[in-house]
Amino acid sequence: MQSTVSTPSFQKLRSRYRNRVRLATALFFFGMGFSFATWASRIPSIKSQLQLTEADLGTLLLALPLGQLLAMTFSGKLVTHYGSRWICTFGLLLYAGCLPFIGLSHNKWELAIALTSFGFFGNLCNIAVNTQGVYTQSFFEKPIMGSFHGSWSLAGFAGALTGLVMLSFQMSVLHHFLIALGFVTVLVITNTRYLVKTQASKPEEKQSYNFFKNPDKTLLWLGIICFCGMASEGIMFDWSGVYFKEIVKVPGALVVLGYTTFMISMAAGRFLSDLFVAQLGYRKVLLLSGFVISIGLYTAVIFPYLIPSTIAFMLVGIGVSNVIPIIFNSAGNHPTIPTGIALTVVTSISFLGFLIGPPIIGYIAELTNLRYSFAVIGVFGLIIVCLVQKLSLFKG
Asked: Which residue from 167, 164, 90, 166 is spatially nearest to 127, judged by alpha carbons?
């Protein structure tokens, strides 16, 4: 009697493979978000340990985007030439590997060097992981890019929750960061082989594209809109905990509540981003996002109390959730410029938001009050609205 062995059809195997690739890409986004959130959740602790003023912290926070800018000079070319798969792998390991060095910092200079390295490898990983996201999107008919950024935001919530637990158990920053490194290492080891191996398929002559010699207007405006979104997002990462501690004056471990609620709402917004875009179109989603960012920040400024500020930070999270996926996906699908290089151009412009936003907060807070600093950044949401309305870059 001959036994019959049932084998999955080609379509099922193909679907299974695509889903595993999607999961691997999402987990790399998760690893990046978890690494950043781990650092951000312990900023108040590091500020207290090193006895930093608001101006000191604002100046030191320049080190992180400085490292990002240093990497931007060649990260796109590396991804284009070698492919994003191995850049993702080594980039994420080195990114998380910087965390213990941050925890080991005993003075301002050590922290500055550690943060510069953290920003450097973070940018390298960011370009590679987003390139993977664009390649993986090409396997699917429905939009999925928003879900990848949702994984990053979900990791931010997980990192913030982990930070809350570590604070509750009074675990040192260094031990906390070593645990985070171990977790990210496991993610990398178990998912690298499922990443897309495809390299850029756009014309070879375009791989040497230089934005300064031949600026592309589309990439320029995408970068400026993204700049405003990242400036708003950046201050929430770096200053939300300080705001809750010094302005809202919440006790103990609740200092991470604002950051946690921000990350939850941003994660939810990004998982719903693809649905919003399908229903409303890119233009309307960006317009609404700009308004919500400003409403959230000004609510926190006018009502600096626990419940209003918590709701306000959730609104900011919803507002910023759609900006990055829409802009990065649009840049990554540029018809003539390789994905890695196009993303580098946009992130080079947009990450200036991280460069300018956090220091502005620190310097204005030193001269006046942290509430006034948040009011200044609230303008960026309105700038997004004005740019989208005037330029009409997105339709439908």
From this structure: 90
pLDDT of residue 372: 84
From the list 69, 92, 130, 32, the residue with the least C-alpha distance to 334 is 130
CA dist., res. 84 & res. 199, Å (int)? 7
The secondary structure of 251-272 as a DSSP string is -GGGGGHHHHHHHHHHHHHHHT
Low-confidence spans in the chain with pLDDT less than 70: 1-8, 198-215, 335, 354-355, 391-396
Rg (Cα) of the chain, in Å, rounded?
21
Q: Is 10 exposed, middle or buried (0-12, 13-18, 19+ CB in 10 A)?
A: exposed
- With b for 16 or more beta-carbon neighbours within 10 A and e for fewer, the 37-76 pattern comes to bbbbbbbbbbbeebebebebbbbbbbbbbbbbbbbbeebb
Whether residue 46 contacts residue 111, with contact meaning beta carbons closer than 8 Å, is answered with yes
Task: Check if the beta carbon of residue 116 is closer than 8 Å to that of residue 68.
Answer: no
The model carries a pTM of: 0.75
Residues 59/366, Cβ–Cβ less than 8 Å? no
Show the DSSP H helices in the chain as ranges: 10-41, 43-49, 54-60, 63-72, 75-82, 84-97, 99-103, 108-137, 145-168, 173-191, 217-246, 257-271, 273-280, 282-302, 306-321, 323-332, 339-350, 352-367, 370-377, 379-391
**What separation in angstroms does the CA of 310 have from each of 370, 374, 380?**
16, 14, 20
Which DSSP letter does residue 211 get?
T
* Six token digits for residue 293: 């960012």
> End-to-end CA distance of the chain, in Å?
61
pLDDT value, residue 299: 94
